[in-house]
Amino acid sequence: MDDVHRSSDSVKVESTSNYYSDGFDDSEDPLFLSDDDFVGDDDGAADALLEDIKEDEIDLLKQKQQDCKILNPTELRQRMEQDVAQVSSVLSVSKFEASILLRNYNWSVSKVSDAWFTNESAVREKVGLLVKTVISCGIVSNKRKIIICGICFRVPHQ
């Protein structure tokens, strides 16, 4: 039995790192290289570009912050009344209707005007304003009143 050489006796384990190694040297793996190991033509232009972008974003944020003003309730009410009066005058609608229009268009006079002149009936339907119809009660005379448009000062076609 002494002549039988056991294979387990002759196996030598050199080290645990070599035992589990796949034979690949990790120091040459590009995933393990540091920035200093790379050779390129980058002269810092990318960093300068990033700094410019960050400065532009900061300037934009500062500009947005400067455009904001906190209004007290009196100032807010004044501005709202001015907007209602302007929309009422330009669109020839009541102040009540103007306030409904402004509420539906986030108090933007220009958005109300643009939408109104693009398609008045669609805007009226969207905000829930009925189209005005003239109902006459009583005696109807043969005399016709000339109605002039409050916006363009023309006589509408009949």
Automatic annotation (TrEMBL):
Protein name as it appears in the record: RBR-TYPE E3 UBIQUITIN TRANSFERASE
Keyword hit for Transcription regulation: no
Composition bias, Basic and acidic residues: 1-12
Region (Disordered): 1-28
Keyword vocabulary terms for this entry: Transferase
InterPro entries hit by this protein: ARIH1-like_UBL
One Pfam family named in its UniProt record: UBA_ARI1
Residues covered by the E3 ubiquitin-protein ligase ARIH1-like UBA-like domain: 78-117
Keyword Transferase applies: yes
Organism: Salix viminalis (Common osier)
Entry's Gene Ontology molecular function annotations: transferase activity
Top-rank taxon: Eukaryota
